């Protein structure tokens, strides 16, 4: 049986947020105030839809956006980590669950030739329409009250595990690597043998440490990381067990 590695994308694989990074394509590298202020909590995908429409209306073309997105830096040690996983694909299945979008993630994985490392990418579906506007849709509808309307990463993870298990694929443990507030929901459902790996100094890690101070129960172990190289060390330890 393999280990399942679950990756977040923004601020985990890449060292920035692709949705805010893309704003550098806008005139003067910023959004008009009315657009900036139009974000409503929980409705990020709708907001990004308006941002992409604005960029399209301003004449920002696909190749320009692609150049910007593929220039985002990887997080420290991530290239080493993804190469390590590729070399050990017999021991790991690997998925991305991200609130970015399918176009951005495809661009990055294609530019860096890391598509083959990931078995599946779950994210908001995006495409360019006939006007050259990037359009993005909610990944799904769900009823989790803790998560934004477009995506509950826990629902995605549970559905994936169930589907795999129906096909006879079971995992010894899940290792969840992320940084953000939308990684809290899936991480709190991890089981005793699983490992939550929050990025040091980011929202997920701060939330988990607050929860442990409040003695809120969590089953999985927690291993904090700053570099992908530290994640490699922990994975080496897990596969030796
Ligand atoms: Mg993130
Ligand atoms: Zn949720």
- Distance separating the two termini: 13 Å
* Run of helices and strands: EHHHHHEHEEEHEHEHEH
Mean pLDDT: 96
Total beta strands: 8
Q: Strand order across the biggest sheet?
A: 3-2-1-6-7-8
Indicate the percent of residues in helices: 25-40%
The computed structural class is alpha/beta
Shape: globular
- Uncertain runs: none
Beta fraction of the residues? 15-25%
Ligand set? magnesium ion, zinc ion
The largest sheet, given as strand count, sense and whether it forms a barrel, is: 6 strands, parallel
| Rg calc | 18 Å
Number of helices: 10
Cofactor: Mg(2+)
Pfam family, one: Put_Phosphatase
Protein name: Phosphatase, orphan 2
Organism: Panthera leo (Lion)
Plain-language structure description:
The protein has 241 residues and is an alpha/beta fold. It is 39% helix and 17% strand. The chain is built from 10 helices and 8 strands. The protein has helices spanning 18-21, 33-36, 44-57, 62-69, 78-87, 102-111, 153-166, 184-188, 203-213, 228-240, and strands at residues 2-7, 92-101, 120-124, 126-128, 134-136, 171-178, 195-198, 221-222. The strands form 2 sheets. A 6-stranded parallel beta sheet has the order 3-2-1-6-7-8. A two-stranded antiparallel sheet has the order 4-5. The chain is globular, with a radius of gyration of 18 Å. The structure holds magnesium ion (MG) and zinc ion. Zinc ion binds at residues 144, 146-147, 152, 154, 185.
């Amino acid at each position: 049986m393999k280990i399942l590695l679950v990756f977040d994308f923004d601020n985990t694989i890449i060292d920035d947020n692709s949705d805010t990074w893309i704003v550098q394509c806008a005139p003067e590298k910023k959004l008009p105030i009315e657009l900036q202020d139009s974000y409503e909590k929980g409705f990020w995908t709708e907001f990004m839809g308006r941002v992409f429409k604005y960029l399209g209306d301003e004449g920002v073309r696909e190749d320009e956006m692609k150049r910007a997105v593929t220039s985002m830096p990887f997080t420290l040690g991530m290239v080493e980590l993804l190469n390590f996983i590729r070399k050990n694909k017999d021991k790991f299945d690997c998925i991305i669950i991200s609130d970015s979008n399918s176009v951005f993630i495809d661009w990055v994985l294609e530019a860096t030739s890391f598509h083959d490392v990931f078995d599946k990418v779950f994210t908001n579906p995006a495409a360019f329409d006939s006007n050259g506007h990037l359009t993005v849709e909610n990944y799904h509808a769900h009823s989790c009250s803790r998560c934004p309307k477009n995506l509950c990463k826990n629902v995605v993870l549970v559905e994936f595990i169930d589907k795999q298990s129906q096909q006879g694929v079971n995992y010894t443990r899940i290792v969840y690597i992320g940084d953000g507030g939308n990684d809290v929901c899936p991480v709190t459902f991890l089981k005793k043998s699983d490992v939550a790996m929050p990025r040091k100094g980011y929202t997920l890690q701060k939330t988990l440490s607050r929860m442990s101070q409040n003695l809120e129960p969590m089953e999985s172990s927690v291993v904090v990381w700053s570099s992908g190289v530290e994640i490699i060390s922990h994975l080496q330890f897990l596969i030796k067990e």
